[in-house]
């Protein structure tokens, strides 16, 4: 269900936006073109989080993960009204932050390879965004800061 509501349905929505010419390309290079798709994705994440919180009995850590991802996407969308930041960095920095927070909260378990892997992944994606001229260094840095701050704070203090 998470895969359907947070990947398949948003992907189909973006395809429809492209076919109906609401977006020029899948790259969404300017901030104005990103507002509508990001708003739709925010809505899908809110619905998913709501359904899992209210309707399903699942691990609270999953609910927390969905909630912080939803908050990150909503903040990303809000910032997009004024400035383009890296959604890729927001997502990967959020993943890295969750792994680091869990590792700090559970020192008895060795999370070294997960922390290193997520750090390499985040650095690689940030470098790729810069290399492709998809973002400026400031846009990558702010995207990283948003994802890391929201996810680390929530997982470190609430888990």
From TrEMBL:
It comes from the Bacteria. The keyword Cell membrane does not apply. Residues 86-158 form the Phosphatidic acid phosphatase type 2/haloperoxidase domain. The chain crosses the membrane at residues 36-54, 61-79, 85-104, 111-132, 138-158. Keywords: Membrane, Transmembrane, Transmembrane helix. It holds the Pfam family PAP2. The keyword Signal does not apply. This is Phosphatidic acid phosphatase type 2/haloperoxidase domain-containing protein.
């Amino acid at each position: 269900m998470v895969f359907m509501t947070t990947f398949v349905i948003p992907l189909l929505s973006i395809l429809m936006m492209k076919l109906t010419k609401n977006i020029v390309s899948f790259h969404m290079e300017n901030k104005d073109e990103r507002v509508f798709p990001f708003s739709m994705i925010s809505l899908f994440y809110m619905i998913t989080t709501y359904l899992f919180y209210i309707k399903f009995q699942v691990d609270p850590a999953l609910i927390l993960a969905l909630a912080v991802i939803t908050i990150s996407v909503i903040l990303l969308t809000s910032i997009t009204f004024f400035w383009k930041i890296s959604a890729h960095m927001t997502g990967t920095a959020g993943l890295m932050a969750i792994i680091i927070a869990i590792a700090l909260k559970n020192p008895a378990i060795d999370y070294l390879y997960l922390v290193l892997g997520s750090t390499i992944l985040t650095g690689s994606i940030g470098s790729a965004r810069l290399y492709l001229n998809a973002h400026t260094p400031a846009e990558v840095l702010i995207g990283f800061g948003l994802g890391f701050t929201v996810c680390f704070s929530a997982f470190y203090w609430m888990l």
